[in-house]
Amino acid sequence: MEGRPLDDRELATRASNGDVEAYESLVSAYSDIAFRTAYLITGSAADAEDAVQDALVKAYRALTRFRTGEPFRPWLLRIVANEARNRRRSAGRWWRRTETLAPELQLRDPARSPEETAEAAEERATLLRSLNRMKPDDRAVITCRYLLELSTEETGAALGWPTGTVKSRLSRALDRLRGEVVGSAVGEMA
Amino acid sequence: MNDIEIRLNAFAEEISWPATPDFVTGLRERLADGERTPAAHRPARSWRPDLQPTTWRRVAVIAVVVLAIVAATLAIPPAREGLARLFGIKGVSIQRQESPIPTTGAGNALERGLLGDRTSLTDAAQATSITIQPPSRLGAPDEVRTRKLSTTTAITMVYNPRADLPDPNGTGVGMLITVFRARVDKAYFGKTLGPGTQIDEIQLASGTGYWIHGKPHVVIVQLANGDATLDDLRLAEDTLLWQDGDVTYRLESARSREDAISVANSMR
Questions:
Q1: Best to test chain B binding among A96, A124, A142 (most B CBs inside 10 Å)
Q2: I need a surface site. Which of A8, B66, B103, B166 has the fewest CB within 10 A?
Q3: In b/e form, how buried is each residue of B59-74, taking b as 16+ CB within 10 angstroms?
Q4: Which residues of A fall within a CB distance of 8 Å from B17?
Q5: Considering only CA atoms, which of B89, B181, B182, B179 is closest in space to residue B132?
């Protein structure tokens, strides 16, 4: 592939015609978001890896049904999320787990940087604590929309919810998070 | 976009995710191999017990062997103290697990049914010959449930969430106190712990107890008599385990260690 970079649609079209190199380019572009979405659902890096690997094989085989002009990322994420949920469900029968585990979030660099003020560091820690105190579904929808930066449609695909449900649950989750953050701040001042 | 959304957007870069595996290397082989190894049929990597009866029998055999080893080792004084931390309570075995173990979900009405049939404390005591005194700190439970676990019966006192029994994780339950008479030669309980879960030895009015805290965990009940079962409904909150006489108690809630100890001590 030479010249200008190909966009997703062109790559998907080529991949559907058997161009594995084009498919590898798509996989490379969306590995992070696919893996993190699967991790959000399974709560396990190992299961997420398996889910994504399986989803990539299924997606490749389904490319012939991929509609030209359709955005590739949400289409792929839907397949990844379905695969992750399948793995979660098959394990879930054992201990009645919810469909989305939404594992607790962690900071990349928990230590305060030299440039960061004590107030900013505390604000960051408060937000993290508040997120981790939320119900898994609340944390999941907020994580999808703001921390994975998925669209509403992609969030719906990831969580298996209709778009309307994503919007209403997100709104309520944000209200609860705001309450948690304010409550934490008041608690710390007291 | 409001204040909290702005903060969340700025927060996205701060979050640590597990390292993304290399999905490109080997992709061609997996695509070529896909039909021969159906994806969904490959076993999950994290630890998951299998429902197959043959596997359970195998687990039960292993359980018996483990118990035999433990019993033999406990006879050796230097080993006793260390092992007591893991096998300190009659009928309770605590196993560590290297990979993270996801936890159970909510304790809604349907799942409460998994705790057994609803009954009263009087009837539960009559059926099990275990006299249970509800913690005076909490008063009578909202529900009492009993269920058979092979040769033993577990009694669970269920407390609904309330001001002094918070439910921050949305389990639908404020506290669970499970009581059972366990015998080492008949059953053992395994609690599989993920990394980040700690066990502290504590002193209660009735003797030694164990405070299990940190990351969520699940509880597994395995019986050594050829059967095995999973204690599959748990809050997966911090847990206090203790023994009084030949009865083992397990208290699970989102309350602090000191509160849990206080509740446990109020059951005497």
A1: A96
A2: B166
A3: bbeebbebbeebeeee
A4: 32, 35-36, 39
A5: B179
ipTM above 0.95, yes or no: no
- Using DSSP's 3-state secondary structure scheme, residue B228 falls into strand
Beta strand ranges found along B124-164 (DSSP E): 143-149, 152-159
Handedness of CA B261, B175, A141, A187 (dihedral sign): negative
Give the separation between CA B143 and CA B205, rounded to whole angstroms.
26
At B223, the amino acid letter reads L
Note whether A23 contacts B: Cβ–Cβ < 8 A: yes
Matching residue, tokens 């609860």? A176
Chain A positions touching B24 (Cβ under 8 A) are 24, 27-28, 31
- In this complex, which of A46, A53, A177 lies closest to B30 when CB atoms are compared? A53
A83 CB within 8 Å of a chain B CB: yes
Tokens matching residue B172: 């639908």
The pLDDT tens digits for A14-66 are 998 889 999 999 999 999 999 999 998 888 888 899 999 999 999 998 888 88
